[in-house]
Amino acid sequence: MEETISLYDIFKVLKKRIVLILSIAIIATLTAAIISFYVLTPVYQASTQILVNQKPNEQNQIQQQDIQTNLQLINTYNVIIKSPVILNKVIEILDLDTTTTALSNQITVSNADNSQVVNISVQDEQAYLAVDIANTVAQVFQEEIKNLMNVDNVNILSPAELPENPTPVKPNKMLNMAIALVIGLMVGVGLAFLLEYLDTTIKTEQDVEELLGLPILGFVSRIPDTNDEAPVTAKSAQPVGREKVNV
């Protein structure tokens, strides 16, 4: 006979193990909060924008062909920005204690479709250092591209600035706590059903009926202990004298 589980059975299991489920979820959320607030190091981000554009000609016009050429070069520029040619000079100028590979992992280069604006984002544990790296990368790239590709079509559009109260982009504390809460609930529910599956004890008459598949005609109540006599006191334990009987 194939065993099926109804929604009522599921609800009954969840209700029975609700304390366990909520406990695991709360513990997971608190653990994520402690790690996010006190263990993980905050990471800050700074961004600068450069414009890839040819200088106007003598008639003060930019040809459509020049714009298409710039768009095609942007993908190449994105690779050059993170190349050792640029990053080695950035490390030297800022006297950074890092490698080109590690610095490259801190830098993200992107641009919107059909846009001549390239965005350079840098993440670092120090907010001011992220700003310095972003601006230095843009400046070094603007200077070096003239020698590397014999072009002069890069201008710094928006340099990175250090705000008064920088806000870290990592870790996202609320997101981490929300994820931990969801995972805690999932683990709690899974553990509740696992414990219910492993629990083969019979506790009620309904369990017997479900196990045997037979109706219950009656059951015997538990008989309480009869050793409930009143304790014998000193007064009641005194011997009783014989009464005189007159004939």
Structure write-up:
- Mean pLDDT is 82; it is low at 234-247.
- The chain has helices at 7-16, 18-39, 64-81, 84-94, 100-106, 127-149, 173-198, 205-212, and strands spanning 44-52, 107-110, 117-124, 154-158.
- Among the domains are: 14-39 and 173-198, no CATH class; 44-158, Alpha-Beta Plaits.
- Helix content is 51%, strand content 11%.
- It is elongated and about 105 Å long.
- Strands 2-3-1-4 form a 4-stranded antiparallel sheet.
- The relative contact order is 0.16.
- The protein is α+β, with helices and mostly antiparallel strands.
- Pfam families: GNVR, Wzz.
- Keywords: Cell membrane, Membrane, Transmembrane, Transmembrane helix.
- One of its GO terms (cellular component) is plasma membrane.
- It comes from Ureibacillus terrenus.
How are the elements arranged and paired?
Blueprint: H1 7-16, H2 18-39, E1 44-52, H3 64-81, H4 84-94, H5 100-106, E2 107-110, E3 117-124, H6 127-149, E4 154-158, H7 173-198, H8 205-212
Antiparallel strand pairs: 1-3, 1-4, 2-3
Q: Outline of this structure?
A:
This protein has 247 residues and is α+β, with helices and mostly antiparallel strands.
Relevant terms:
247 residues; 11% strand; alpha+beta; Alpha-Beta Plaits
Which H/E pattern describes the elements? HHEHHHEEHEHH
Query: Which structural class do the helices and strands define?
Result: alpha+beta
Low-pLDDT ranges: 234-247
CATH superfamily of the domain at 44-158: EIF_2_alpha
Fraction of residues in helix: 40-55%
Q: What spatial order of strands do you see in the largest sheet?
A: 2-3-1-4
What CATH architecture of the domain at 44-158 would you give?
2-Layer Sandwich
Terminal CA distance: 85 Å
Radius of gyration: 39 Å
Average pLDDT? 82
The total beta strand count reads 4
- Number of helical stretches of at least 4 residues: 8
Report the CATH C-level class of the domain at 44-158: Alpha Beta
Region (Disordered): 228-247
Domain Tyrosine-protein kinase G-rich: 141-194
GO cellular component, one term: plasma membrane
Pfam families: GNVR, Wzz
